[in-house]
Every structure is written in structure tokens, then in C-alpha cells.
Specification:
Blueprint lengths: L4 H23 L12 E7 L10 H4 L3 E6 L5 E2 L4 E3 L5 E3 L5 E2 L4 E5 L9 E3 L11 E7 L5 E8 L11 E2 L3 E3 L1
Parallel strand pairs: 7-8
Antiparallel strand pairs: 1-2, 1-12, 2-7, 3-6, 4-5, 4-9, 9-10, 11-12
Length: 170
């Protein structure tokens, strides 16, 4: 089959135009995934306060986890749950609210709950010094976030968040 010269020129021009559009799309890096916006975020696990791990409440309460409201509305956290890798479970008390941009601290050990600090009310440490996983669930039991750390890991990796010898940054 013989193509007339003018048709061949049009075909080549069309092909060239298609390549000019297609090639940059093919070699461009993939678009970054949109950041997942979650209204409640685990921001810190203070798992190994300095000093020896004595078995007393005054030491237990030095250990804590912090959550932050990253949304634009006040959150009602009644029934939300935080768990570790073991049997430890903290359920936010009825009426717990967290304003936008505010942080709530949940301390191991026993104490009097306030609007800024809650207590597990257990006679023990919660977070393992060598590594653990903090999991946050909504009041319906849906996992919202998981923060896995290994004690002293300076750089975050696919499996672990960045941590120091005392603190995991989620």
C-alpha cells in the first residue's frame, strides 16, 4: 500500500504531536499520594523516662502517650481506645473532648483525670522500652492509626517511627 506524500506528512506530524504529549507523561515521576488527613493523631510515646524503672506510681506516671486534634472541630473521644502490643487497653472516659490543635496526654499509672491529662489507672508501666506498637481506635472499634517503634531507632523506616532512647515520634 502506497501512502500519498501529503498523507504521510500529516500522519508523521500527528505522530510527533502525540509523542510530544505522551513522552513527558510516561517519564514524569508519579504524583505524590495525598497526605491522609486524620482528625486525631498519635504524636508521641514517652516510653522510657530517665532513671531506673521502679515499681511505684510516681514512676509509672512519668510514662505517657500524646494524641492531638489536627482537625478544625472539637472531637468527642468518649469510647475511643488506645492499645499496646499486649493486653494493655485505655478507653477514653465519657465526655472526653479535645479542641482543634490541642494535645491530650494519657499517662501510665494512677491519677486524677483533667481536661489535659488522663490516666490508665493501672499499677504498671504500659510502653515497652525496647519497642512496642501504639494503636488508636475510634468508639466503633475501627483502627485509626498505628505507631510502631523500636527503642533508640534514630531514623524512621517503613516499619518503625523515629525514636530516641526515651521517646517515639509518631
Amino acid at each position: 500500500m502506497h501512502m500519498p506524500l501529503l498523507s504521510r506528512a500529516r500522519f508523521l506530524a500527528f505522530l510527533l504531536a502525540a509523542l510530544v504529549v505522551a513522552v513527558p507523561l510516561a517519564i514524569a515521576p508519579p504524583a505524590a499520594e495525598a497526605a491522609v488527613k486524620k482528625p486525631l493523631d498519635i504524636v508521641k510515646v514517652y516510653y522510657d523516662p530517665p532513671g531506673r524503672d521502679y515499681s511505684k506510681n510516681s514512676e509509672y506516671v512519668k510514662e505517657y502517650i500524646q494524641v492531638k486534634n489536627t482537625g478544625k472541630k472539637t472531637l468527642t473521644l468518649s469510647g475511643y481506645v488506645i492499645r499496646d502490643n499486649g493486653p494493655q487497653k485505655f478507653t477514653f472516659p465519657k465526655g472526653t473532648k479535645l479542641a482543634p490543635g490541642k494535645t491530650l496526654t494519657i499517662r501510665s499509672g494512677k491519677g486524677k483525670n483533667t481536661t489535659k491529662t488522663k490516666y490508665w489507672n493501672k499499677s504498671s508501666y504500659i510502653w515497652n522500652n525496647t519497642g512496642d506498637t501504639a494503636r488508636l481506635y475510634n468508639s466503633k472499634g475501627k483502627l485509626l492509626e498505628s505507631c510502631k517503634y523500636k527503642g533508640g531507632v534514630k531514623k524512621a523506616s517503613k516499619g518503625y517511627v523515629r525514636s530516641t532512647t526515651t521517646t517515639a515520634y509518631c
